[in-house]
Amino acid sequence: MTERPAILRSTPDGSAAGRLLRRLTPARDYIGIALLGAGLWILLIETNAFYSSVLTGILIWTIATSGLNIIAGLGGYPSLVQGAFYGVGAYGSAIAMQWGQPFWAAVPEAMVAAGFLGLVIGLVFSRTRGQYFAIGTLFSGLVVALVLNNWRSLTHGALGLSVDFGFANLDQLNIAIAAAATLTLALFRFVSRSRLGWRLLTILEDEDLAEHIGVPTTRTKLTAFVLSAAIGAMAGTLIGQYNGTISPDLFDYYVGFVMFVALSVGGAGRVLGPLLGSAFIVGVPNLLNLPSGIGLLLAGLIFVVVIIVLPGGFMSAIDALVHKLGPKARS
Amino acid sequence: MLAQAVANGVVLGALFALLGAGLTLTYGVLQVPNFAQAGVITLAAYTMLWLNQSAHWSFWLAVLGGLAMGGVVSVLTERVAYRFVRTRPLAAPVVALGMLLVLDNIALVLFGGDHVSLSPPYAGDVIHLGPVSIPAVGVALVATAAVSLLGLYLFLQRTRTGRALRAVSQNAEAAAMLGVRLERQYGIAFFISGILAGLAAFAYGPVYAVFPYMADAILLNAFVVVVLGGLGNVVGAAAAGLLLGLLESFGAVYVSAAYQTLIGFAVLLLMIVLRPSGLFSSGERRVA
């Protein structure tokens, strides 16, 4: 995380082909993401029910961690509250639908609710740096979990809620999940090269210096945090739709932390980092059918080892591999 | 009602103070928010329980075993994980959480997820002071906290090692130049913090329950204590622990018991907005 983000490391390549490749880069990236999305969708519908459910979990987590990637990956702020936004999305959309809202309205409503919560949490804790931002956001997640457990008239407490279906069948839901994951990856790619993304990178590099050269740091951090929250909520609406029921233990305070683990293991600040990390943190324990205790134990161990030996996550290992194999520019 | 709330608050505050002192110590020397402390507490508590109930050691011998386990595990977290992120302050909190995940789930895998109770010989006793009744385990908690915090204070003020520890906490580079061996001080700080975690387990186990995630939520309160007391300030942590315990106890009685933890959060919010350097600190290290 303290390494220079790969985005700032230019790869000088003077050849004509290199120049052409670089000029094509944006289009190439978006086409790549679209193809990846299509491939994931085909996997989702062609594999058997078990693999398909594992892949669904991975994709939904990819959405949530891609949201987290904006504030944590680009801005370097270790937010541990993403699980709460995920929960607000799931509960918000379920409750809005119970109140008679159609699904297509319930999703943006839940995202706005989570964005507003993100604004409030961000207003307080964006004043703190590093460690205290982590503690503050972790505590915020705990408070949201507490509310989900105890506001029984709204959430039915530990019993949970059943979710009204917004899609006619599983095929439609599969398309929605694959499309949402693809769009989120593309959105992250867009944000990372936008003005917001560059500003966040200056904050990651040196926040005081950024402030001095005129970057509106507070506004930038808040925008990023709200965006992260809203995307987290979108993932939450999808898990609600997929599961059919939701309960507070799905959104306990440590979920936000495990999402941060997934992002860091995959590669913070990288477009594909969330997908790689989610595949590892969600997919592997499910595929091996590990009991939850051993799964989390392994996740913790792997995470500590990766953070220590590979600060840039799996993506940095892939970079190194690509660099070794050939002079091809990477995405 | 009021007197009972004060008594409950003192018991809770003693626990917060005990946890906060350990956290502030490790934060002082290494600038690591040691989330893994909660996992150390869990493992120490299970060690006591296992030695007492499965290995049939006497209760006090089992407690000693648990304290030793706390110290060893805590030093291990520093040796195998924190030492590698000393120069990367952003990675420290997340490595700490990773270690917490590892320690908690070791407990889950080894001992299962049931809530069990650590029962000392005086488990059923209740002490009556006028209208107030305090279970003996609560009194033991307060006594444990008072004795160990006083001991810690004297150790830090009066002994050579304690002074070296404070020197590292104030300025590690200068301390190293004056011949303090940093590695050794890190080990000592984590060992003491592990012993404090063991004491917390001994005090906490009988009052609440022993399960793998027993200390997670309460540890976040302990961080509020660290922020409130001023980072790296043991006396501040003790005072802030008592204050927060009383606040939460009053909140539980007069507002809602379910949202007790929310009061700690509210205090944290107020602190960060109003007085980021802490109530009892000279303002050397700011939170925000």
- Which sheet architecture does the biggest sheet of chain A show? 2 strands, antiparallel
Q: Counting H and I runs of at least 4 residues, what is the number of helices of chain B?
A: 11
Strand content of chain A: under 5%
> Approximately how much helix is present in the residues of chain B?
over 70%
On the 0-100 scale, what is the average pLDDT of chain A?
A: 85
Mean pLDDT of chain B: 84
First CA to last CA of chain A: what distance? Answer: 20 Å
- Order of adjacent strands in the largest pleated sheet of chain B: 1-2
Q: Order of strands in the sheet with the most strands of chain A?
A: 1-2
- Biggest interface, chains and residue tallies: A-B, 43 and 45 residues
The helix/strand series of chain B, from N terminus to C terminus, equals: HHHHEEHHHHHHH
Task: Briefly note the structural class of the backbone of chain B.
Answer: mainly alpha
Oligomer: heterodimer
Q: Sheet with the most strands of chain B?
A: 2 strands, antiparallel
Instruction: Indicate the low-confidence ranges of chain B by residue numbers.
Output: 282-288
The number of helical elements of chain A comes to: 14
- CATH topology (level 3) name of chain B: ABC transporter involved in vitamin B12 uptake, BtuC
Principal-axis shape of chain A = globular
Output the helix-strand order of chain A.
HHHHHHEHHHHEHHHH
Tally of strands of chain B: 2
